Voltage-dependent N-type calcium channel subunit alpha-1B-like
Amino acid sequence: FNFEDETPTTHFDTFPAAILTVFQILTGEDWNAVMYHGIESQGGVKGGMFTSIYFIILTLFGNYTLLNVFLAIAVDNLANAQELTKDEEEQEEAINKKLTLQKTKEGKEVSPMSATNISITS
Protein backbone atom coordinates (compact mmCIF):
# COMPACT_ATOMS: atom_id res chain seq x y z
CA PHE A 1 0.00 0.00 0.00
CA ASN A 2 1.31 3.42 -0.86
CA PHE A 3 -0.37 5.83 1.51
CA GLU A 4 0.82 9.34 2.24
CA ASP A 5 1.28 8.72 5.97
CA GLU A 6 2.16 5.04 5.36
CA THR A 7 -0.79 3.86 7.45
CA PRO A 8 -2.85 1.10 5.84
CA THR A 9 -6.61 1.52 5.69
CA THR A 10 -7.03 -1.42 8.05
CA HIS A 11 -5.55 -0.67 11.44
CA PHE A 12 -6.36 -0.66 15.15
CA ASP A 13 -5.33 2.93 15.91
CA THR A 14 -8.88 4.21 16.50
CA PHE A 15 -11.99 2.44 17.74
CA PRO A 16 -14.07 2.89 14.53
CA ALA A 17 -11.14 1.72 12.39
CA ALA A 18 -10.67 -1.29 14.70
CA ILE A 19 -14.35 -2.24 14.36
CA LEU A 20 -14.12 -2.04 10.57
CA THR A 21 -10.89 -4.03 10.60
CA VAL A 22 -12.39 -6.79 12.74
CA PHE A 23 -15.45 -6.84 10.47
CA GLN A 24 -13.18 -7.19 7.45
CA ILE A 25 -11.32 -10.05 9.12
CA LEU A 26 -14.52 -11.84 10.11
CA THR A 27 -15.94 -11.60 6.60
CA GLY A 28 -12.69 -13.05 5.25
CA GLU A 29 -11.97 -10.13 2.97
CA ASP A 30 -8.17 -10.09 2.59
CA TRP A 31 -7.68 -10.95 6.26
CA ASN A 32 -4.19 -12.31 5.67
CA ALA A 33 -2.97 -8.93 4.34
CA VAL A 34 -4.35 -7.28 7.48
CA MET A 35 -2.51 -9.90 9.54
CA TYR A 36 0.77 -9.19 7.75
CA HIS A 37 0.34 -5.43 8.35
CA GLY A 38 -0.26 -6.19 12.03
CA ILE A 39 2.85 -8.35 12.21
CA GLU A 40 4.94 -5.64 10.54
CA SER A 41 3.61 -3.02 12.95
CA GLN A 42 4.76 -5.14 15.91
CA GLY A 43 8.34 -5.52 14.74
CA GLY A 44 8.29 -8.16 12.05
CA VAL A 45 8.19 -11.93 12.24
CA LYS A 46 9.92 -12.37 15.61
CA GLY A 47 8.02 -9.65 17.44
CA GLY A 48 4.69 -10.29 15.74
CA MET A 49 4.17 -13.92 16.71
CA PHE A 50 1.46 -13.07 19.23
CA THR A 51 -0.14 -10.81 16.63
CA SER A 52 -0.40 -13.67 14.14
CA ILE A 53 -1.85 -15.93 16.85
CA TYR A 54 -4.42 -13.20 17.64
CA PHE A 55 -5.50 -12.97 13.99
CA ILE A 56 -5.76 -16.74 13.59
CA ILE A 57 -7.83 -17.08 16.79
CA LEU A 58 -10.00 -14.13 15.76
CA THR A 59 -10.61 -15.70 12.36
CA LEU A 60 -11.43 -19.16 13.69
CA PHE A 61 -13.62 -18.21 16.65
CA GLY A 62 -15.17 -15.21 14.90
CA ASN A 63 -16.26 -17.26 11.90
CA TYR A 64 -17.52 -20.02 14.21
CA THR A 65 -19.59 -17.47 16.14
CA LEU A 66 -20.97 -15.87 12.97
CA LEU A 67 -21.88 -19.30 11.63
CA ASN A 68 -23.75 -20.14 14.84
CA VAL A 69 -25.65 -16.84 14.72
CA PHE A 70 -26.60 -17.42 11.09
CA LEU A 71 -27.76 -20.97 11.78
CA ALA A 72 -29.75 -19.88 14.85
CA ILE A 73 -31.59 -17.28 12.77
CA ALA A 74 -32.25 -19.80 9.99
CA VAL A 75 -33.56 -22.47 12.39
CA ASP A 76 -35.77 -19.93 14.16
CA ASN A 77 -37.25 -18.77 10.85
CA LEU A 78 -37.91 -22.37 9.78
CA ALA A 79 -39.65 -23.11 13.09
CA ASN A 80 -41.83 -20.02 12.67
CA ALA A 81 -42.69 -21.07 9.12
CA GLN A 82 -43.74 -24.53 10.30
CA GLU A 83 -45.97 -23.01 12.98
CA LEU A 84 -47.57 -20.75 10.38
CA THR A 85 -48.28 -23.66 8.05
CA LYS A 86 -49.87 -25.64 10.90
CA ASP A 87 -52.10 -22.68 11.76
CA GLU A 88 -53.03 -22.24 8.11
CA GLU A 89 -53.90 -25.94 7.79
CA GLU A 90 -56.09 -25.76 10.91
CA GLN A 91 -57.88 -22.70 9.54
CA GLU A 92 -58.39 -24.41 6.19
CA GLU A 93 -59.83 -27.50 7.90
CA ALA A 94 -62.22 -25.32 9.91
CA ILE A 95 -63.39 -23.56 6.75
CA ASN A 96 -63.89 -26.89 4.96
CA LYS A 97 -65.96 -28.20 7.89
CA LYS A 98 -68.15 -25.09 7.83
CA LEU A 99 -68.67 -25.42 4.09
CA THR A 100 -69.51 -29.10 4.44
CA LEU A 101 -72.04 -28.35 7.19
CA GLN A 102 -73.64 -25.62 5.09
CA LYS A 103 -73.91 -27.93 2.08
CA THR A 104 -75.46 -30.70 4.14
CA LYS A 105 -77.98 -28.27 5.67
CA GLU A 106 -78.89 -26.95 2.23
CA GLY A 107 -79.17 -30.50 0.93
CA LYS A 108 -81.53 -31.49 3.76
CA GLU A 109 -83.77 -28.50 3.15
CA VAL A 110 -84.17 -29.29 -0.54
CA SER A 111 -84.20 -33.09 -0.53
CA PRO A 112 -87.58 -33.99 1.13
CA MET A 113 -89.73 -32.38 -1.55
CA SER A 114 -87.37 -32.70 -4.44
CA ALA A 115 -89.53 -35.42 -5.99
CA THR A 116 -92.15 -32.83 -7.02
CA ASN A 117 -89.61 -31.03 -9.14
CA ILE A 118 -88.58 -34.12 -11.07
CA SER A 119 -90.45 -34.67 -14.29
CA ILE A 120 -91.01 -38.22 -15.37
CA THR A 121 -91.26 -38.82 -19.06
CA SER A 122 -91.85 -42.08 -20.76
Observations:
- Residues 15-119 form one domain.
- The chain has a mean pLDDT of 80.
